[in-house]
Write a structure and sequence with these properties.
about 210 residues; alpha/beta; five-stranded parallel beta sheet; about 55% helix
Length: about 210
């Protein structure tokens, strides 16, 4: 059984590139190997990219420059940077530019595979979050103006009577709007509704002080 994601390996060192390719294929990943960042970027428009493992020091386009380009064009792509022993400042720069992680040479095979799997797992969670938020926003768009006003009151913790007073309607009418919006949103409970509001950005998460 193979992993569905393809790992793009970018390294100008033939031996290092072949070694990485062999390791990842042994772990059941599909791999595309590239001799330079320039070669990779030429192919990029026609590729679906999930994860890139790149050396940091390469002639022409460096690993940092490749990382910056990828994060500008494909923000969701996981990029793992491989650095030499003395490249810690470059590794820090890579993390600031959005690298999923960096690994120092010589690296342990298990460490590299763990890092790749963790990066892909996070990417999958992020993708699921984007899809969920889109679905919730679509549901919010089906609400009437009054239903949305009732929703805003509910997710801010107001009881039906307070919402009714604020909107100059009866508590019974609030209950009807509440039932309607729960159905439209597909919410099983008020807590589920609040979670949806958080995902949609209607509420800000409070961090402990």
């Amino acid at each position: 059984m193979t992993n569905s994601e393809v790992i793009d390996v970018v390294d100008d060192d033939d031996a290092a590139r072949h070694s990485l390719e062999f390791l990842l294929r042994t772990a059941k990943f599909d791999v595309r190997a590239h001799r330079s960042a320039t070669d990779f970027l030429k192919l990029l428009p026609g590729l679906e990219v999930s994860c890139v493992v790149t050396d940091v020091r390469m002639p022409g386009v460096s690993g940092i420059e490749l990382l910056k380009h990828l994060k500008k064009q494909l923000p969701a792509v996981a990029v793992i940077v491989i650095t030499g022993h003395g490249d810690v400042p470059l590794a820090v720069e890579a993390m600031k530019c959005g690298a999923a992680d960096f690994i120092e040479k010589p690296f342990d095979d298990d460490r590299l595979l763990t890092t790749v799997r963790a990066a892909l797992s996070k990417q999958a969670r992020d993708d699921e979050g984007v899809a969920e938020r889109g679905a919730i926003l679509d549901k919010l768009a089906t609400l009437s103006n009054r239903e949305r006003q009732v929703l805003e009151g509910l997710v801010n913790g107001l009881p039906n009577k307070s919402i009714a007073y604020d909107l100059a309607i009866s508590p019974r009418t609030v209950e009807i709007y509440r039932a309607n919006l729960m159905t439209k949103m597909g919410a099983k409970s008020l807590s589920d509704l609040v979670r949806m509001a958080l995902v949609a950005g209607m509420l800000e998460r409070k961090t402990p002080t």
